Amino acid sequence: MPALKVLFVASEVAPFRKTGGLADVAGALPKALRHRGIDVRVVMPLYQGVKWAELERLEGTINVPMWWGTARAGVRLGKLPDSDVPIYFLEYNRYFDRPFLYGPPGDAYPDNLERFTFLSRGALELTKAIGFLPDVLHAHDWQTALAPVYLNTFEWSKPLHGTASVFTIHNLAYQGNFGSGGMFITGLGPEHYNEHEFEHFGDLNLMKAAIAHSTMLSTVSPTYAREIQTSAFGFGLDGVLAGRGGDLRGILNGIDVDEWNPATDHHLPATFDAKHLAGKARCKAELQQQMGLPEKPQQALFGVVGRLTSQKGFDVMAYAMEKILGWDLQMVLLGTGDQDAERFFAAVSAHRGDKFRATIGFDNTLAHRIEAGSDFFLMPSRFEPCGLNQMYSLRYGTLPLVRATGGLVDTVENYDEAVGGGTGFMFNDLTTESIANTVGWALSTYYDRPNHITAMRKRAMEQDFSWDRAAADYERLYLEAYSRRRKHPFAG
Ligand code: ADP
Question: Helix (H, G, I), strand (E, B), or coil: what is residue 293?
Answer without folding.
Answer: coil
